[in-house]
Amino acid sequence: MDGDPAVEPVIDGFSQVLPLPYRVALIIVLGIWAWGLNLHYLTLIKIDVPSLIRYPARASPHHPPHHLSCYRIATFLSIPLALSLLLFWALTHGSPTDVAGWEILPNLYLLVLVIGFIVPLPFVSRAGRSRTLATLKRISIGGIAEAQDGKFGDILLADALTSYAKVLGDLFVSLCMFFSSAHSSTGAPNRNCGGAFWVPFIIAVPYMIRLRQCITEYYRVQRANQRTGQINPATGWGGTHLANAAKYSTAFPVIVLSALQRSPDPSRFGVSEATLYRMWLFAVVLNSGYSFYWDVAKDWDLTLFSGARVRNSPEYPWGLRRHRYFHAKEFYYAAVVVDAMLRCTWSLKLSVHLDHFNDLEGGIFTMEVLEVLRRWIWIFFRVETEWVRNHRGPAPDDILLGEVGVGNRYDDSD
């Protein structure tokens, strides 16, 4: 880059303050803080998250609790991030040329982020770190552990990756621009860096992982039924896993059609721009609606979408369920409303005065943060549901609503 303002791409005001590499780092660190808060609050209400995900137990009661270790890691990563940002602002003063020229600072922090995760730290359990890396390695190819080996932890982490899909795409863009002689990673983001294929592909990878996990679960159920010669009433024939796989597969048309709409000449694909938009809109509605239904009915086991008799049962508040660890019913209703709203943030594009919202860097960043917020809320209720399944019901291998009778779904066994 020659630094000539006449040939440099225009850098929007938001990117001058918070360039793409810093945004990626900020959302990653935010996710670590959020996970610590998940662990902390769930511990306060007597839900043992480590036991659910088969995480190594503390060797001594004098060792810090898991959420405190998470806070320490988040603090360790937050301090250099804050210092790096302050130094970046002091050196650039919002000048587009200086912003583009000082790309080394945020990328050095990304290196610190990687080192902090891989290199053993004195305040991080070695066993816990090894377990986390092993889990990442396993799920990176769509693998999933058996229930007794931490399957639930694999599912939580893989689902979290789907919420970070766009962030992973931005990370690729940032690194691509950093290693490109024609761009600066702190300049105007070029989401076509590396070609039109790679960014959509990277965004799709987390959904491919979950899709493969669901298919693996389906075949496990099939093999178990073949061994016994009958369908297990607890796990059924595996149809729920296929339905879950179908949910993740609905993300692919959205990703592909979004990529096609970014093409300079969509008509070369044999469809008009208007038709392409309508196809994209249908895919988005299907994905958002299906995902919202699954969150409420399957992941949280709420009866909102059940039949009237079950939904209106006098044993529990309307649309909820019998056993709940969050005592205020308003928590559940609020979670449903927020999940619906954040699942449908795509609707901002339908507003005429916000038709370019997703084309603004601040808008993209806001969408990514909101998705991390939605996932943070989702984890509270998903973990609470799993705890109820294991301690208030028959608790076989990850029972899912719809595979057993709803009437005795949470009946006490004693």
Description:
- By secondary structure, this protein is mainly alpha-helical.
- The protein has two domains: 13-194; 263-392, no CATH class.
- The protein has helices spanning 13-17, 20-44, 49-52, 66-92, 96-101, 104-118, 126-139, 151-163, 165-178, 198-228, 239-249, 251-261, 273-299, 308-311, 329-343, 361-391.
- α10 (198-228) packs antiparallel against α11 (239-249), α13 runs antiparallel to α15 (329-343) and α15 packs antiparallel against α16.
- The longest helix has 31 residues, at 198-228.
- The protein is globular, with a radius of gyration of 23 Å.
- Mean pLDDT is 85; it is low at 1-8, 351-355 and 393-414.
- This is Exs-domain-containing protein.
- The chain crosses the membrane at residues 20-44, 73-92, 104-124.
- Residues 190-414 form the EXS domain.
- Its main location: membrane.
